[in-house]
């Protein structure tokens, strides 16, 4: 199963993902294909809606101190729910669905999340730092929210202007080589 990353402004990114009820081979194939797409795209997280599947499924693979992403540290979350949160942190975020754009976003410093694994077993994780930020970013995707939706009015306008400029440059570049 080869997956393609859905990019802004595709309307599927605004879709709310549905709860997963079947923990079967189809789900396992989706998780494997998502992992391959995430690693191939140099991502640290990926929600199923970013590859066109409106299911409450996400992956996280935070790089270690050597900037390597070991499969052993892969976290697969199905039907995640933030049960506790506290503090505030600002982190410069990017997104595979909004390539080449980074902005500071305010998030909770610490979160506690209940979720299910690929077999349907209930799990709980407490996270701080980058893992906490990445979990919140990916859970937002499950609710149809992009990190650019969290920007202030002026920063959002700045993004729209830069986005249009990049799209125009891509179009010109394509026409030169066509």
UniProtKB/TrEMBL annotation:
GO terms for biological process: translation. Binds 1 Fe(2+) ion. CDD domains: Pep_deformylase. The keyword Nuclease does not apply. One of its GO terms (molecular function) is metal ion binding. Signal peptide: none annotated. The active site is at 138. Coiled coil: none annotated. Its EC number is 3.5.1.88. SUPFAM superfamilies: Peptide deformylase (SSF56420). The keyword Electron transport does not apply. It catalyses: N-terminal N-formyl-L-methionyl-[peptide] + H2O = N-terminal L-methionyl-[peptide] + formate. Removes the formyl group from the N-terminal Met of newly synthesized proteins. Requires at least a dipeptide for an efficient rate of reaction. N-terminal L-methionine is a prerequisite for activity but the enzyme has broad specificity at other positions. Belongs to the polypeptide deformylase family. This is Peptide deformylase.
């Amino acid at each position: 199963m080869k997956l393609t990353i859905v990019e802004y402004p595709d309307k599927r990114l605004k879709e709310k993902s549905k709860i997963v009820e079947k923990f079967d081979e189809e789900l396992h194939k989706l998780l494997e294909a998502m992992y391959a797409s995430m690693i191939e795209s140099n991502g640290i997280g990926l929600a199923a809606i970013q590859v066109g599947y409106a299911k409450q499924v996400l992956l996280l693979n935070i790089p270690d101190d050597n900037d390597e992403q070991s499969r052993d540290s892969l976290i697969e979350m199905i039907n995640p729910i933030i049960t506790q949160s506290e503090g505030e942190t600002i982190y410069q975020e990017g997104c595979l669905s909004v390539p080449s754009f980074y902005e500071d976003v305010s998030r909770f410093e610490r979160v506690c999340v209940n979720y299910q694994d690929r077999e349907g077993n209930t799990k709980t994780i407490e996270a701080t730092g980058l893992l906490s930020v990445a979990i919140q970013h990916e859970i937002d995707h499950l609710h149809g929210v992009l990190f650019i939706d969290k920007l202030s009015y002026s920063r959002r306008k700045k993004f729209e202007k830069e986005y249009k400029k990049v799209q125009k440059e891509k179009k010109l570049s394509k026409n030169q080589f066509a």
